[in-house]
Specification:
The protein is α+β, with helices and mostly antiparallel strands. The chain has six helices and eight strands, in the order ααααβαββββαβββ. It has two domains: 59 residues; 151 residues, Heat Shock Protein 90 (2-Layer Sandwich). A hairpin with a 3-residue loop joins β2 and β3.
Amino acid sequence: MQLQTQHFKELSAYNQEIRSIKHDLKNHISMIRGYLQNNQINNALDYINRFDENIQQISSLVFTGNNTVDILLNQKMFLAKQNNIRLDYNILIPNQFDIPDLDLCIILSNLFDNSIEATSKVDDKYIELKMNIYKEQLFISLSNSFDGSVKQSSNQFLSLKNDKNTHGYGINNVKRVIDKLHGTITFQYDENNFTVNILMPIAKTNQAYQINK
């Protein structure tokens, strides 16, 4: 649990860094506007080129309205991009619900880490995340490409991480949280695709935001 708490603190720090970049970008835009108003076209172009990497990073950010999901998804999007993984998502969730942030962090971070590891073994690298509310339950579905190799022990799925000492810990942590929240988790796979489906009961809510890519 201490490690999970530390991980969530790191995610929060990452989110703060992103907010800082966004704030600075507004100042950069003001500088560019000033150059253009003074007809200093070359200076404006030079400024844009120097901060192009920052602009691309901001343009890839996801805002679902739910702070915990935003922090996690943006961090994992960054990791996916670094590893040349296509990440698609379709999310329709409330900005708040009664699943504790730490529990949601454990679920999403472990599922994403396993997916990113699994895609490293194949040429067609993709991850697809779906989140929505179904009959007062939070539905999470995470699919990824993989090499068709499934490791099991006593009918339990194990992580595909290279470090054998950590096999199964991530999935076991996810299952522990889902059991505590009275939810369910199922696995589906074929030779090219692995999918985890999760349902967890939540309090009734009417406000939701949708994003997709």
